[in-house]
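BUG: 3D viewer hangs when loading the predicted structure for this chain

Environment: internal workstation, default settings.
Expected: structure renders.
Actual: progress bar stalls at 90%.

Input used:
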Amino acid sequence: MPTSLSSAAALQTAVLDKDELASLPAFQRTAIELRDRIISGRLQAGQPLAEQELASEWGISRNTVREALRFLHGEGLVEYRHNHGVSVRCLSRQDVRDIYRTRRYIELMAVQLPETITHYHLDRLRQPLDLSAQAAASDDWQAVGTYSLRFHQCLVHMLGSARLDAFFTVLVAQQRLLFASGQYESAFQQPWLERDRRLWQLLSEQRLAEVAQMLMTYLEESERQIMDTFAAPRERLFQAL
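Structure tokens produced before the viewer hung:
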């Protein structure tokens, strides 16, 4: 069964140390690993989740997998369909609006408090930026999307609230389900690479009013881009980017 977490999962669960993670029930550790697969793009919207396959992969009981899936259902990440079993959830336009409304509240609060922007947090923010650049150079755009989400998790982590960290981790997983995938992901992710780096630069210079304005515009434009995917075929949308 999953007894350790990948680097992505370790960041998501920053409120827990290694011993705390090890002390969690098996179903919760399994749920964390599945959530990590969603955030990293390895599990995508609509993908079936077969209990027996997951149980065999990790050497755990189907009951443990079933409990983990119920846990993720409570987080809005999987859905049950009659006669079709469990699958990764497909989100709606209303979900998009709600996710971005929530992101604006939390992330803008995080970047407007000078006392939260320490050298520790700036270093922490820099790590996913560097990894994102490496992934882009390797043409791994799925990883670029994941590291961009990590960057925004680190923004929220500046607030120093374990509850907000945990809440935002679930929000990030839901956000990942909105991203384009496959051959279109490079066009989807490219516009945000430099913007994330510019946000970091402004934060490091304590130019907080500019950070807030840029972040507001960033989130508004990202929301519009996501909403457009509901209104146009992917081929036409990403040819226009």
